[in-house]
Known about the structure:
single chain; alpha/beta; seven-stranded mixed sheet; two-stranded antiparallel sheet; globular
Amino acid sequence: MIMKQNAVYIVPISPIFNPSHIKLFDKFNSDESKFLRSTLYLNLINNFSDKENKADFYFYLDELDKDFLPEEFTQQNFTPHFFDLSNKKLFFENLSVKEFTLHKNNILIASDIIGINIFDIDKCINLLSIEDESLLIGKSKENEIGILGFNNYYPDIFDSFVKSSFMFDDFLSRIKSSNHFINTLNDVLLIRNINDFKQLYHELSQKKSIEYCSQEMHERFTHLFIEYKDLLK
């Protein structure tokens, strides 16, 4: 396989399938927490797999999920990479050796994001494709970082990224002395609490959502909206 200049990495925060280790989503039970997070992940796979694009895509899962992949994942045409995601510092160090240095532009995307398609990836790549040292940061309304792109790997940048717990303001304060040109994408939608779930419902009710969420994925999300309709009030 010919390696491309750009790479995108889909990374969950923690296990999303293993029932003994899954983090419950707000008021959801274990099965529905798994269903929500797996649907968000599947949606990204659908958006990025088997499409002509400018990047190599790497789909990561926590190693604790290795023996618990649902059938709909094993049927997908993608190869997951497993790692102990509880140690983010080691994870990024591993990527720096294996992948970061082999690509000109690298983009990390949280797996619980919605609203991103292949055309958005192309836009991100274009923002990074400059001669200057550049960072691309996509943050939610709660200032959580859901996207981090860069055109040169610096260990101190990632050390600050981990120490900030992926919070935008803290991260910026730690790298304020760097010479990077920073592009900021505001209001990326990360689905991490009930307010986000309500926003997800609102977003998917709009016709334009078909650009980043297929009819099949809409139906999976609709199951959750019906199950938790009282939370949407």
